[in-house]
Amino acid sequence: MPETNKPDTSVILVCAGNASRMNGVNKILMPLGKSNVIGICMQAFQQCEDVAEIIIVTKSEHAQAIRETAESLQISKLTQITDGGATRQESVMQGLKLVSKFTNYIAVHDGARPLVKPEHISKVIRDARVFGGATLGVPVKDTIKIVDDGLITDTPPRHTLYITQTPQVFRKRLYFEAVDFALEHHLDFTDDCQLVESIGGKVCMTTGDYTNIKITTPEDRAIAEVLL
Predict the structure, then answer these.
(1) What is the pTM of this model?
(2) What's the sign of the alpha-carbon dihedral 18, 20, 21, 23?
(3) Which CATH superfamily is domain 9-227 in?
(4) What is the C-alpha separation between 29 and 50, in angstroms, rounded?
(5) pLDDT in tens, 70-95
(6) What gap in Å lies between CA 51 and CA 167, rounded to an integer?
(7) What span, in angstroms and rounded, lies between the C-alpha atoms of 194 and 162?
(8) Dihedral, CA of residue 68, residue 84, residue 79 and residue 104, to nearest 10
(9) Helix, strand, or coil (residue 20)
(10) Sign of the C-alpha dihedral, residues 153, 155, 160, 164?
């Protein structure tokens, strides 16, 4: 599919987790740089020319703080904030209901990955235009072992293994088709690539970088501060 100069991607930022590994502290509102985690994250997508709109899925009690953050940073692309669901997939579907009918691509991103670079967002969107779907990721550095009952059963070739990150971007029609299939067959995935793979969709692995970390523990926030 040819590239377009018009912003045509709807971004769903998923921020509805329970913060179980952050001792109950809401990680997306934790201070980071000159703002907070979700603020730095929104700035990356605001700066990406391919992005038409940003939709945030979160807990209702955090919505006002996110709006205030967006206003302070002049995030003009934020169009909607909505409540999350019981699972990650249900949360994404909540955001999906609010996507503009005028956009052509869906990008799903973890709100707790604030260090994603605008150029990598554009890169993964470009690959999604070619293949129908694409995700950011990085090659695995270590040797991985498959273990069963405490014993090593296999050693997959390291050059075939990638750590999957976000955003994960898909042609809108393909993504809606995958969602319909999951709902019809009562399937629930923790990864949007799996969702599209379940209907035979092809997903490109777009190489990003190792700084696109996900903040899941208090130590991660300290690392993100240094990287920022």
Answers:
(1) 0.93
(2) positive
(3) Spore Coat Polysaccharide Biosynthesis Protein SpsA; Chain A (3.90.550.10)
(4) 26
(5) 999 999 999 999 999 889 999 999 99
(6) 12
(7) 14
(8) 150
(9) helix
(10) positive
